Structure formats: structure tokens, C-alpha cells
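Lecture 7 notes. Example A: sequence first, then its C-alpha cells.
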Amino acid sequence: MRIIKILIGKELSTAFDSWMIYTGYLLFFCICGFVCWLSPSNVFSMGQANMLSSFTVINWTIFFLVHAMTMKSVADEKKSGTLELLLTKPIRTSQLIAAKFWAQLFIILIALLLTLPYYITIAFIGHVDHGSVILGYFGLIEISACYISIGIFASSFAKTPVTAFFVSLGIGLCFQLLFGILAQQFGSGFIAELFAYLSISEHFDPLSRGILDSRDIIYFTSVITIFLSLAKLFICKTRF
């Protein structure tokens, strides 16, 4: 645990020493703020005091933000040679991956904190189901963790950060859009149910509406575990 904490500190120090993360936060806040409050589909046009539209915007903004952040997580270290240096030290591969995962998740949690003024404002102007909002934020954390694990996986075998970005973006779009579209195309039956289950949106939407289902938690946990395990395999190949 001590090694993981040290590695997390190193990851966060590197991230916050760069102007890119602050630019990312600024863009995230501005995009979410514009769509939620100034666009034609703003929260006032909904006629309801809820954060459903806000959660959709935050979800998609985080989607691109995470892939941009994680593209350097392993690929950049491989390119610079620092990964090989790290792997010569008494650090387990699982500890390295865990540190990168938790550091990236912490960065996303800060981004989500920037959206709390939306919640406070909506609660001030109308009656809000606070339980639904809490579950919605929980869903955003879960879905962000999935994107992060996909990003780390892509970065673990890609030779450059740019390649990692497009690979993780492609995989992410499959989970975010393609599987849901295929489920609708097949209509009914086992194949349709399989694609529906694989779709991240199918598991995020209930949480954004305040519905907690253990199957959704199992899904998110499985996606995170699978992609982080695959990342470990690719990094282990580098190690040995």
C-alpha cells in the first residue's frame, strides 16, 4: 500500500505540474456549463428540476477528457524509457497499474466537483430528488473508472500516446454507442440482449435516474477488472 501511495503521489505531481490538466479542467467546465445553462437544451427548457440532461453532458465530456488524459499513462513512459526504469525497481506490475488508475480517478473526481454548482443551483430553483443526484454522480464515477481502465489498457500496448488515444477512443465508442445501436438493430433475442448488456449506457442510464441495481455494479466492476488485467499482461510482456 505504501508503494502505491508513493506512485500515486508521483503520478499526481507529474499531472498537476503540467498546464494541460488545468486547460482540460477549464474546457470541461466551460463545455458543461454552456450546454447545461446556455444551449437550447439547457436545464431550464426541460421544465423539471433534475440533472438528467447535465449528467448526459458531463458523461460525454468526461468520455473525451479521460481518453486524452490516459493516452500518456503508459505509452509516454515506454517512449521515454522511464517504464523500463520503473520495472527494474521492486515494484509489482499490479501496484504500478493500481497507482495509475487511482491517480486518474482522483483527477476525474476533481472535475466532477467542478459540476457541483449545477446541482446547488438546480436545488435552489426547484425541488430535487437528492437520492437520484447522488446515484447519478456515483454512476459518473463508475463510468469514468471504466473509461480510465480502457485508456490504461490501450496505452499499455500502444507505441505512442496518439495511437493509444485513438485505440481507447474506438473501444470506448463501442461500449458507449455501438453496442447499444447493435442491440436495437437485432431487436430481440440473445444477441440483442448481449449487446444491450455490453452497452455502458444501458447500465449508466438507470443510475442517472436514481435506480440502483446490483447487476450494474457487477458490470462496471467487471469491465474495470478485465481491462486493467489486460493492461497488466501487456506491461508484464515489457517487463520480461
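Example B, a different protein, same format:
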Amino acid sequence: MKPLFLNIIPHQCRILSLILMTVISFNAMSVQNSAPYTSAMRYNLAGQLTGTIGPDPDGIGPLKHPATRNSYNGQGLLIEIEQGYLEYWQRENVKPVNWSNNIFRVITIQRYKYNDLGWKVLASTTSPSDAKETLTLYSHDEYGRVKCKSVEMNKAGFWAAFSYPITNVCQGNSAGTDRITRYTYNEFDQVVKIEKAVDTPLEQVYVENIYDGGLKTDTIDANGNRAHMEYDEFSRLIRWNFPDKINVGGYSKSDFEEYTYDNNDNLRTLKKRDNVNTITYFYNDINQQIKKVWPGTASKDVVYKNDLRGLQLKARYGSVTGLGITREYDGFGQLKEETNTTSGTSFVVKSDYDQNGNRTKLTHPDGKYFMYDFDGLNRLTTIGENSNSSSRIMTTHVYDVYGRPIGIERANNVDTVYDYDDISRLSEIKHDFNYSGNKVTYGYEYNPANQMTKLSLSNDRYREDNNVVGHTGDYEVNGLNQYTCVGANTGATNCSGGKSIRHDDNGNMTYDGLRTYGYDIENRLILSNYASLGYDPAGRLHRYSAYPNPTKTLIYDGDALIAEYSGNVLTNRYVHAVGADVPLVSYAGNTVTSSSRQYLYTNHQGSVVAASDSNGNLDYINRYDSYGVPSASNQGRFGYTGQQYLSELGIYYYKAR
């Protein structure tokens, strides 16, 4: 039986309606135009993505539409990804394959090659001039699993891989420089062995895994150290035995962590490696964590409160009304206010957002605020001090037409410029200080494995003089890969001439030959020589004191340190860019004016290498050795890789504990 509406509409009308709908649909497709914050995706008849077009980030400015183009072979396999930009918007009736070279400007090309079975045998990155910069080859076993992966190092021979069948991937070149990794599997496709540096004198078994019933029971590292895992009847990990410190190849029966779970598979208890302390976790009926209990110290228990979206509203010590953190969110789940009372004083940090979810305003506890502006691609463009008016802009972040950051312009006219090689790897950072003797350019070169092979400095003032090359001495390591002796005389016993290193039962270093260290149950540093440290319920370093200096209270925006207090007195303030570990500006005291700014400058690792005042005069230079050890003359809160440096303790606070 036909539907009623078909019965009452004449056949000729139904045909006319179909024609009109088709015409209207095709017209709608062909008139899709550029619009702010609008991206477009193009597909082929198989539903595969063939192109993407991003919005114009600056309207009538010089930047263009970022774009990518994907190409496929007759099997429907992706063979090429071109990245670049479009001079102007391309309507939907123009297929990406028809984007002409004078419209689509390409910066990098990724190419792939497959065998007759559709298994990938080649991946490369090339420049627009078709210079092949990186090349990785793959071979497979009879089940299609990757057997060997070779990062090719001889650029002169790259062309052959594109022209001839790919064979002997597990064999290196005559120079023995190819980076070959070999994989071995069991009948369940689980990796049981990974070998690295294959077909070179450095060939090694990097890791071995043992399975039982599909579960990994043992893993053995390149030094032969074995860890052992046990599971319950629901395949949940219940014990992790760590390697034996002394007997290589065995695991310790006394050094382990144990885990239990509730009926919903939530972690209920964690028994620590010291075989003394157990942390217990509690959950509500919708599996949200509501409490974390430490043994014997109720004041250190953390009580949580969440909303139905799973957003954490409270994290307090001892009880839901104890000291700690309170959070408020807007209707989109964006954090708009965080109050931290861990120290006994209330510190409130507030955030405002635009319609795209970009945080546009950050208000510090004392009411001072900083404004963030973004372009049409949601990239940070400016940071303003107590305003976003042009007169209060501190930093302007600049991008090229390919979407790469190419500079930071500062209000003190000491700018930073970034440059790139043919496949968009960072090749230069230039800090253009006012006085030529303070200027510095960092240069970088890479090999086909994308490893940095050369780091050049234009100014020796930024080079660490104590970066000793070729330092000799023995380093002793136990079965847990912990250093037990550093810098001993060659062949010496009992660490003669070196420093003995000690660790606690949880694996934390307790003595480095100079200082002693103590930790809490969650492996966070709480004591060192004449120093103590404390944390808020979110696990962030919130307080530390080091004799004879006064106690410092640290306030955060997420994981970014934004303020330091001594008692209730604000001593330092910091402004960060978007992202992790990117400090840009610091202030001493509570004054926020253009004349009180101190600008920070970083290298490729994010390490702060210099600072300048509001007039562009150099305040200081920071230097580091190859391991991040700072020069004795270094200054500022942020140091190596942009981490907090606790100078009184001689350590960095890396957050991940």
C-alpha cells in the first residue's frame, strides 16, 4: 500500500518536485562562500576526505585560508597529503584536485606507498620543490603486521624507494646508519619483542613481553630488568612486581604495588611499594570519585564534590568544608572561577570566554586582569594588560600564511623572530635586543630522523661555560635503573671519588650526595635541607619555605603559576601564553603598569634564556648545560624548559609526580 501523500500528489508533480529539489540542492552546493570562523570539508564519491579549507584568520589582512588536499590511489588508499594555503576561497563545485598551483600554495607534502596487498611500505615528507627530507620504510610478515620499520638516513638514496620495489627493509645501508626497528608477535598479534638498531653493532633487544591468556605478565627492558604483573579473574591488574635491584632477570617478591577494585571496576585501594601505606578511594553511584583517604592522617584526606556533568566543584582537605579548592563553571562546562583556601587565605582566579571557547580574560586574586585576543583560527594574537586597547598590548603573536608562528612582537620593541626549513622544522630563533652585544640567534639543523644535529649560537654570552664535554667517571645503576653512584673513579669500589645516591622504598631519590629529600605517600617532595613544601588538593605545589627566606604561597591558573605571595603580600606575578609552560611576562610586587613589566625570552626547549625591562634593556641572561643544570648566575622563577626553579633547593618543579 502506498503512503497517503503519494496517492494524493499527481505523478507529474512528483517528478517536477524532484527536479526542483535537485536544482536547488546543486545551486546550494555551488554558492557556499567564505565566512568568518567557517571551515569547509570536501569529499569524493566514496566519502573520503579530499580537502579542508580553514577560515581566513584576519579578514582583509595578508593571511590566507589554510588548506589541505588528500589524494588516493585506485584502491582508495591515501597516497598524498599536501598542506598549505589557498589564495582565496574555493567553492564546493571546485574539486581539490583542480586547485591550481597559483591558488593552492603548498608548504609540505606527505607521501605514502603501498604493496599489492594494500599494506603501507613507505612514508615520506617532502618540500614543495620535491626534495625528500624524511623517509620511513616498512616490511610486513605474512599476516600484514609490521615486521621492520626503517628510518632511512641516506638522503641520496631516497629516490630509489619511490622508483623501485621496496625490499630488505630489515637490512641497513652500507654505512650502517639507518634506524631499523624489528617487531616480533605472538599468535594473538601482541608484540613480544622489539629490537632496535637492527643490523648495526649497537643492535639490542629493547623490550620483551610475556603474555598469559592475552594478558601481559612480564616485561623485560634492554638491561634485562624484569617486571611482573598479576591479574584477578576479571583481567584487572592487582599486583605489579618491580625488577630485583641486584639479580638481573628476576623480579622482586617484596617490591610491588597492589590494587583492588569495586564492583564497577573503579580503583578502590592502592598499596604502595613500601608495603606499609595504602591509599583508599571512594566513589558515588555514578562512579565519580568523592574521597581519597590516606592512612592515619585524616587531615590529608581529600574530599571531592562533582556536578552531574562530571565537573569537579570542590576538592577539600579533611571534609567538604575543609581547606582547599572550589570551582564554578558556566553552562558550557568552562571554568569561570576557582577559589583556593589551602593556605588559610582565600585566593580567587576568574576567567571569561568568547563564543568559540577561547579564554579572553584572566583575573588575578587582587583584581588585576589580562586580556587575550584570538584570530579567526582561534590562535592567540595579543595579550593586553588590564585592557585590550592598543596602548596596553604587551605582546603580539604573528603567524605566516602557512599558519606557522613567526614572531612575538613586544611593547618594549625587543622582538622574537622564528624561521623554518623546507619542511617547517624550526631552523632559527632570533631575539633582537637593542644593544648588538645582547642580540642572539639560535640556529638548528636536522637529520632525516628529525633529530637535531647542530645547534649554533651567535653570541657566546648565552653559552654555558661549565658545560664540560668528555667528563669521565663510572656510573653505577641497579636493577631499577636508578643511579646508585655518580662520577666515581674508573674501576673504583664503594663509589670512591663519586657521589652515592640513595632512594626510598617507593623509588624516590632521598640523597644525591649533597642534599637529603623526603616525600609524602603520593611521592611528592615535602622536605629537603632546611626546606619544606606543601600541596593543594589538586596536587600543585602551593607552599614552600626555605631557610632563611619567608614562606611562599603559589597561585595557579590551571598548572601555570601566576602569582607568589609572602603572607598576604603579592611579591611576584606572571603572565603566560596559551599552552603549557610558556611564561611571557613577569612583575615584581603588585604593580601592573607598562613600566613594571619584565619580558621573558626562550629557546627551542622553552627554557628562559633572557629577560628585559619595559624599555628593552637586558636584565639578565640565563645559561644551562646539556642536562639543564643552571648557571650559578641564573635568575627568575622560570628556567630550563620553562619550569619553576626553586633556587633555594637547587631543583626544578616539573609538576608530573
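Note on Example B: The radius of gyration is 30 Å. Helices lie at 4-8, 11-30, 158-163.
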